[in-house]
Every structure is written in structure tokens, then in C-alpha cells.
Amino acid sequence: MDGAGGRGERGRRGAPPAASRGRGAARGAARSSVRGRGAGGSPDGAGTLRAPRRDASTARRGRPARRASAVRDPAAGGGEAPAAPRGRAPAGRAPAAQRRAEVPDGAVAAPAAIRRAPSAAGALRLREVLSRLTLGRQDVSEASGLVNQVVSQLIQGIRSKDGSFDSIERLGAGSYYEHVKISEPNEFDIMLVMPVTRLQLDECDDTGAYYYLTPKRNPKEKHLFKFLDEDGKLSALKMLQALRQIIKQEVKNITNVEVTVKRKKPGSPAITLQIKNPSAEISVDIILTLEVQQSWPPSTQDGLKIEPWLGRKVRQEFRNKSLYLVAKQNKKEKVPRGNTWRLSFSHIEKAMMNNHGSSKTCCESDGPKCCRKGCLKLLKYLLEQLKMKHPKQLETFCSYHVKTAFFHSCVMWPNDTDWHLGDLDHCFQKYLGYFLDCLQKSQLPHFFIPQYNLLSVEDKASSAFLSRQIKHQLNNRFPIFHEIP
Ligand SMILES: [Zn+2]
Known about the structure:
Blueprint: H1 7-13, H2 19-37, H3 53-62, H4 96-99, H5 110-115, H6 120-160, E1 169-170, E2 187-196, E3 199-203, E4 210-215, H7 222-225, H8 236-251, E5 258-261, E6 271-276, E7 281-292, H9 312-319, E8 323-327, E9 341-344, H10 346-354, H11 372-389, H12 399-412, H13 424-441, H14 460-475
Parallel strand pairs: 2-7
Antiparallel strand pairs: 1-2, 3-4, 4-9, 5-6, 6-7, 7-8, 8-9
Helix pairs in contact: 2-6, 3-6, 6-11, 11-12, 11-13, 12-13, 13-14
Zinc ion binds next to loops.
InterPro entries: Mab-21-like_nuc_Trfase, Mab-21_HhH/H2TH-like, MAB21L/cGLR
Pfam families: Mab-21, Mab-21_C
Family: Belongs to the mab-21 family.
């Protein structure tokens, strides 16, 4: 359901209901211990946020300002905005809205609310929420430093082995955090990429996203032959089992940090590392990814309709980039055999995030500023908060839904002037309105694979539930952003 391959899984794993209460404290513990290490996550330039100055100054009121330069942008590549520390929610400020009688769920249609002119106070509140999210990122970057160190050591170890994985790399080495989920500073997804010369792709269902893979019978690919199943298809299960064995050996060589490989869950081949600090545990999902230099499959032909927004040339450049496939069990398969792979576009998503303007200078230091990323972060945060409140009812939703709706919105409102920084409130409601529309229709096409509906008809009830929850928030000026559990 998501780009990187692991996040959806994580979403389903979800937070246990009890965690929604205990989390604040746990996060605090994680934060202090991680910070104590002073690991400073050496951010690469690409993802560093140029935070609007206005945000930085309002932010200072909430918590002590930290080094802005090390602050990373969670929206840059599919990460999630970290939740703000609950205990410090601005209870005193705000909510004229909360004093008003709350509108019952779904009683007022969303479009009416959207047309309502946003008051200055409302806009200020959203901006405040956003700056709280911005502050939380420091914790993430510090945890990232530790993860970075462990994963680098691990990759060195894997590559030094004479084996099938000696060409493995971290996706986008150096800017890898942009591919991690960071709603919790202690949960990460890391894509480990294996280059493959050529693969035959066979669709395994009608989504156009899941494939069986057959490597070419070519001596260059002989390191893959041992991972073929009886039908000659590349088995993700076999590859992950082999990789798991190597990683289990390799973590023993890491002595400065306590790293263990989590026990395999029945039916899931995922590899999860557990990095122990005195008071915090960081969990890292390893996502096995194949990279192949060949044209994108036909299911993508009518996707990525970014012409009005980023232009025809950029679209073609993107489509000339490698194809990535992540080991991912297709849940629709009656007898799961661990041999299905799913297309991943997180490298393109990251590129679109980092270069998101219809003009080249959007959000550059000398260019006009927009609120696109701000809107995305707010909706991610909203979904996250709602999921904490209703983990069971919302378990099928993950940040990839929000991100997909975001890209569609960018195409629908393609100009930088449509996302003027000062119009945050209005833009957010516009984007939210589109997302609500998708939920009501149970129709959200994958941005790259239009035939693939991310809101399946089977999930209609949960779409309706989420839609009601969001409308309630919208009609009451987002009380959940200001709640202290
Ligand atoms: Zn911009």
C-alpha cells in the first residue's frame, strides 16, 4: 500500500490501543536517551528543511529551539511527521473552536466548511501545529544517526561476504532517512537494494502493482538462481531467509551498540532489527528491494500525470529511471508462497517532494514559499492522531493514502500560487476536501498505477468511518490537534 514496502505493514501492526496513552512517556524516554548519544544524524542537503522563519519564531514558544540546521523534513521522502510531545500541547492557547458547541459527525457537509473563510486565528493555529511537528524532528534525526551507523556497519559486513548480496546498497545512500517512517523517532524502514540486470515481470493480479519475477538465464545473474522456486520465479521468501541468516551473523560483529534480529513472525518474512539503548529501543525494518534498469510496465502507462504540474519533460525523465520492486506478499493470493513483488516508486516520490514547484525556485532560499509540504504534514499528522484514537477501525489506512491524495492534489492545483504559504488554512482544507471525496467514493487511484485503487470496495465501511472522523475534525477546527490525552 505504500511506496517503500514496509510502512503499510507497520501501519497494520499499528499501535496497540493501550499504547495511545503510554506513548507520550515512552517517546519522551526514547528522546532523552537518543539525544544523550549526541549522534547528530549528518543530514544531507537534499532533505534539509528550509523552514519558514515565521514557523521558527512561533515554535520557540512551545519548546526550546534546537539547531534548525539539523532538522530534517519528514515529508521529503515518505516519512511521517513526528507527533508532537503530548504533554506540551498548547492547552492555554487556542481553541475558541473548542468552546463552541461541537458539530456532530458528518452533520455539516465538508464543502460548506471549506467555503467558510478561514479566520486569522484558525490559520495561526494550523501554523502552530505545524511548527510543533517541525520541532519533533530533531529527535528523529538523532535516532537516525544511530540507525545510520548500525546499517552502514551491517552493509559493509554483508558486502564483504562472498555471496549473493555482495552488491547490496542502501537506497539513495546518504539521503536514506527520507525513505523511513518517522512518526515515531524509534521506528525506521530501510530499503536495501540489489541491482539486477533484467527481469521478466508477470502480473500476479489485476492491480498492476504486484508481479512474479523471472531473472534472465544469464551467467551474470547466477547468484539469483538459488532463490528460484520450482516454477523458476524469484522467491522473495528464499532471498529474505538467506539475508536474514547473514544479518544474524553480522550483528554479532557490532559491539558498540546492542543490535539483535527480531524473531520472525509466522507468515511474515520481514527482517526487523532491534537496536537497544539503555532506555529506548529502535526498531528497523529491512526492506529487500530489487533495482532493474528497464522500462516501467504497461500498468504505469497512464499514471504519473504530472504534466500540468511539473511538465512533460520531467515526467519522461522520471520514467527513464530504474524500476524498483520490493519483496511484498500479495494478500490476495489464496496460498501465499512468498514469491510476489510490488512496484515501488519511493525514489520518484522523493524527487517530486524535493522539487515540488511548478517554478524551479519554489521554496528555494531566493524563491517564493509554498505550503505544499505543510499541508501534507498536517494531514499525515491528522491521520496518525485519528489512528491512535481508533486503531481498530482505521487499521487499513496508512500514510501512503495521504501521500497519494497529496500528489493528486498537486496535479489538480498545479501552480505555486495555488499553494501560497499564507493560504495554509485554505489549501489544507482544499486538499482535505479532495481526500474526503476519495473516501466517500472509496476511490483513490495509485498515483503511478491508476488501475490500482488504494481504497478497495471491501474497505468501504472503514472509508466511511474515516470520512466521518475527518468531517468532525474539520467542522470543529481540528480539536484533535490540541488534545492532551
Ligand atoms: Zn514550495
